[in-house]
């Protein structure tokens, strides 16, 4: 299924998203380009948006809506390391698209919060993980979460692409984004309800491109 068909399906189910169709496609293409050049995705958010960051990573690091068989060269390499166990590994492992949820590292985040500053839990990780050509995705319903904004600034400084997934204003985060998806809602629960189908579609667009 190509990108336009996936977007058509999204808009048919959620007509209010028609106005941000182009932004969704742009964000998807930015992530695809990063992956094609050996990059990775770093995602973060707070509260429900933290759960969304985890969710996105789960869809990218394993199969979502398509099978992802291993490359034959990798299967051969597995066999050369351990022929007995290679069959099991080759039969079950799937190709992943590298993505990290910065929200998920409890010990690291509490250490940064305690030892450095609570607003820098994501910025510190972007500084450590981020490389030129990677993509940072900040999820914030208001667009004004300080810890997400600081991380976006660090990402831009490191030569990364910055994406935002926000409510309809984009908040301050939009000032640092290469692309921002502003869903047409202001109330946090409604924003989050629209975020899910948006990032599901992005993950499908990416997956269909590569697999």
Protein model, in words:
This protein is an alpha/beta fold and 211 residues long. It has one domain (3-210): Glucose-6-phosphate isomerase like protein, domain 1 (Rossmann fold). 55% of the residues lie in helices and 11% in strands. The protein has helices spanning 3-13, 21-36, 48-61, 72-81, 83-92, 106-115, 121-129, 146-157, 188-210; strands at residues 41-45, 99-101, 135-139, 161-166, 179-182. Strands 2-1-3-4-5 form a five-stranded parallel beta sheet, sandwiched between helices. β3, α8 and β4 (161-166) form a beta-alpha-beta unit. α1 runs antiparallel to α9 (188-210) and α7 packs parallel to α8 (146-157). The longest helix has 23 residues, at 188-210. It starts with a helix and ends with a helix.
Brief summary:
The protein has 211 residues and is of the alpha/beta class. It has helices spanning 3-13, 21-36, 48-61, 72-81, 83-92, 106-115, 121-129, 146-157, 188-210; strands spanning 41-45, 99-101, 135-139, 161-166, 179-182. Helix 8 (146-157) links the parallel strand 3 and strand 4 (161-166).
Helix content: 40-55%
Low-confidence stretches: none
* CATH topological fold name: Rossmann fold
Mean model confidence by pLDDT: 97
Q: How many β strands by DSSP?
A: 5
Strand content: 5-15%
As for the number of domains, it is 1
Largest sheet: 5 strands, parallel
Q: What is the secondary structure topology, with strand pairs?
A:
Blueprint: H1 3-13, H2 21-36, E1 41-45, H3 48-61, H4 72-81, H5 83-92, E2 99-101, H6 106-115, H7 121-129, E3 135-139, H8 146-157, E4 161-166, E5 179-182, H9 188-210
Parallel strand pairs: 1-2, 1-3, 3-4, 4-5
């Amino acid at each position: 299924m190509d990108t336009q068909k996936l977007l058509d399906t999204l808009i048919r189910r959620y007509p209010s998203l028609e106005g941000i169709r182009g932004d969704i496609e742009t964000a998807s293409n930015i992530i695809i380009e990063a992956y094609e050049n050996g990059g990775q995705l770093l995602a973060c958010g707070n509260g429900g948006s933290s759960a969304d960051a985890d969710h996105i990573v789960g869809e990218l690091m394993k199969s979502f809506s398509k099978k992802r068989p291993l490359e034959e060269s990798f299967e051969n390499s597995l066999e050369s390391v351990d022929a007995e166990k290679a069959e099991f590994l080759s039969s079950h492992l799937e190709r992943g698209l590298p993505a990290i949820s910065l929200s998920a590292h409890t010990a690291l985040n509490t250490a940064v919060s305690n030892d450095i500053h609570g607003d820098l839990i994501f910025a510190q990780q972007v500084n450590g993980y981020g490389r030129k050509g990677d993509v940072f995705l900040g999820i914030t319903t208001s667009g004004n979460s300080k810890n997400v904004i600081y991380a976006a600034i660090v990402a831009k400084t490191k030569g990364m692409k910055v994406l935002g997934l926000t409510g309809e204003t984009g908040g301050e985060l939009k000032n640092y984004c290469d692309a921002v998806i502003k869903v047409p809602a202001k109330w946090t629960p409604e924003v989050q309800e629209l975020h899910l189908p948006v990032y599901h579609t992005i993950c499908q667009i990416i997956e269909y491109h590569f697999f």
